[in-house]
Amino acid sequence: MINCQIPSKTALLAVFVLAALGGCSDDAAKVSLGLFTTKDVIVSGWTDPKVTGVTCHVSHVEANLDFADPSDMSIACRQTGPITKEQLATIDLDKSGEVVFSTSKSVLFKSLKVRRVFDAKSKTLLYISYSTKETSGSHHHALSSVPLYGTQAWDWALQQGVK
């Protein structure tokens, strides 16, 4: 079941951003940071839309009474089903990869994104979570990897070669 709880202070903008980016996730966990705080750690789970055998969990802080959530996050991605050459044939092989998940982190100009990159040398899918601040950038990021060894896509990965 998909759960898209949106704080009222950002409802209109968040609905627009989520509709434009398709960014609803399934919240796997919600943990309070303390009795006298309005901040919670949210763990959201996503299945990669193109490589459906990969599930990623991103933890981030939600500050319910602030205009922007903190940028810190962590990510863990694992193989949770078959990864096929047909799935991998549809992904962007460019060094910058492609954004596979995105969600708003503030009223304006801040978002949490997850990008998938194929590392041809190690035959591994890299998932990078990062926070964007469109006006000033952000250094907050986290990385997880899913090796293709032992998957149905291993032969495809071997054929990609390293140049």
Structure, briefly:
By secondary structure, this protein is mainly beta. The protein has one domain.
Descriptive keywords:
163 residues, mainly beta, 4-stranded antiparallel β-sheet, 8 strands, 13% helix, 41% strand, disordered N terminus
Provide structural commentary:
The protein is mostly beta strands. The chain has one domain (8-157). Helices cover 13% and strands 41% of the residues. The chain contains three helices and eight strands. A hairpin with a 7-residue loop joins β7 and β8 (141-147).
Strand order of the largest sheet: 1-2-3-4
Helix content: 10-25%
User: Order of helices and strands, N to C?
Assistant: HEEEEHEEEEH
Q: In percent, how much strand structure appears in the residues?
A: 35-45%
The Rg value, from CA coordinates, equals 17 Å
Major sheet = 4 strands, antiparallel
Number of domains: 1
Contiguous low-pLDDT stretches (5 residues minimum) are 1-25
In angstroms, what separates the terminal alpha carbons?
43 Å
- Helical stretch tally: 3
- Any idea what the shape is? elongated
Number of strands: 8
Structural class: mainly beta
- Mean of residue pLDDT? 75
